[in-house]
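User: Here's a protein and a ligand (flavin-adenine dinucleotide). What would the complex look like?
Assistant: Let me lay out the input and then the predicted complex.
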Amino acid sequence: MKWEDLPETVDVLIVGAGPTGLTVAMNLKKYGIDALCIDDRDRIEIADSKCTSVQTRTIEIFEELGITERVIDEQSKVYGLIFRRLTGDKLKPFMSVTDQHFRTDSAFAYALSCPQWKIETSILEALRERGGDVLFSTRLESFEQDDDGVNAQMVHRPSGEKKTIRARYIAGCDGVRSTVRDQLNIQRTGRVYKDFFIIADIHVKFFNYALDKRHTVCSDEHHIHIAPLGDQFFRMFITIHDGYVTAEHRNLWTGTCKPDDDAWKATMAWFQARVDEYGLPWRLYDPVRFSTYEVFLGYANHAGKGRAFLAGDAGHSHSPHGGQGMNTGVQDGHNLAWKLALTLRGEMKDIVLQSYITEREAIWHDLVERTDTVKNVVERRSSSMRLITDWMLPMLPDPFYNEVARRGSQLTLRYEESELNCDEWPSSALGSLAAKLGRAIRVGERAPDGICQLMPTDGDALRTRLHRVLYGGGKAAKFMLLFFVDQSNPTPDFSEYEGFFDALSTKIRAESIEAYAVVPDGTKHFSTRLPALIDTEGELAERYGAHKGGVFILRPDAYIAYRHPAFSHESLLRYLSRLFHSPATTSTKEGKPAA
Ligand SMILES: Cc1cc2nc3c(=O)[nH]c(=O)nc-3n(C[C@H](O)[C@H](O)[C@H](O)COP(=O)(O)OP(=O)(O)OC[C@H]3O[C@@H](n4cnc5c(N)ncnc54)[C@H](O)[C@@H]3O)c2cc1C
């Protein structure tokens, strides 16, 4: 896209085409929303050494974005993480999370080692295939907002030319030094770590650890995290602990390596010396780049104001431990895009945009605390932490590590307080305990996936998965209304559900809601008006705890919004009317400001 093609008005202005902004752009494209994504950079830089760890929940979103085939290959799959600490001259494992600990309903039971530039390039390619694009070399300078939209002043860096465009909403996906955040005068809460962080993208010979895992080795002074990237190529990332940082560290080489340069030879020798301190046989060679960076631990005090929203590093930044930053940004973008789209289409009320703020602010606060805890564990700074790492962690049973694996995968993130939640399932003390232990589901959680057979009202049955049906095979995702029938009844009566769904569009704008009957394998007859999901493996009834029936609503981003143990016309209608406009709302572009 060229500067000359800049439109005068758009529905959404997305500032920043990192992983977060691209996720928003791609999803808005699917919903047919008129969006413009700009970036100050001239292109996606392959030399950028940023994220390499992609978590399971993000891979699920990649499936929706249509990029899994571009980013997943056998070499990039990662099945665990092993921590070892130096005791005397020996390295002893103190925490090992392996594939055995990772029990999941997800189709992607692994993490990925994939460089961030490859992810960005893949989303951009997919966006271009759908007719979208990014306007590079364009910087947002400032913006003002009123009740109906924003006026954004932009500059084309190569020519210095300036233009103002009008947008209904603005998504600030512009990274840690966010202009959108500054313009909104949103402050950040947090602090800068005093540790020293340096990365090498480097080749290693005689690597004696499993190549399908990530490894961390720790001493009192520093720790090294190493992620295999294939063909003897590794991301090696050293943290010098606060208190051990010296002037020497500040003089290390940063940037792309040039073989004849003395400074990078010295940096290379420094890296090899750190590895040797652990008695590891690894020989480092052919570094591609070194980079050092400062880490701010904290979050923006608000995820949005009026018609402007923050997402990705603009909203939060934290310790790289656990590889959560880009993943959280992609999930912010995924959460925001459908909410903007359905508001702009005039289908949903402003409450849905407010829920972005409530949901993501809570996730950011939790994330900052969690990544800081992981960092403290790895650094073993206090005597209590040493007690934990040296004595307790190695003795903890598998269920603890199952939980560590599930949390790291980001599958367990839950929107505990959300304007979109409605739980009418009777609760019991046992049920609450089971949910806390991850043995039962709750509203606000990621909707479990499961194998099923889709039986359309016309056409052939198709073996698929629930998430695939939700994500609509490349189409924009919709709300999914699931009527689970009693699994012991092979001849269910669908008339109540059919009647309800038929009448729904007279009560609310129901264009983005699809209804399915979930029926057991062996069901003898089907509805002629509602498609069915045949629970061929019994996974859906099991994972939703719905053997005796029940009604669930899944959001377009695959979180559970509503559940009720039985069909209740009143409850469903009350819930949906709270979120959706009535058909009498004729505007197709509601676009009112968020609360
Ligand atoms: C060394 C390193 C290793 C990391 N490893 C991991 C990891 O393993 N896993 C993980 O999840 N995360 C990791 N991260 C974090 C991850 O890189 C970031 O969280 C991620 O880049 C955030 O994406 P974003 O799209 O929100 O922001 P960014 O990637 O920063 O993108 C913001 C974009 O906005 C553009 N922009 C900024 N201001 C303007 C403006 N005024 N106008 C127009 N455009 C603008 C910028 O040019 C940029 O392209 C790592 C980070 C670093 C530095």
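Summary: The first helix runs from residue 19 to 30.
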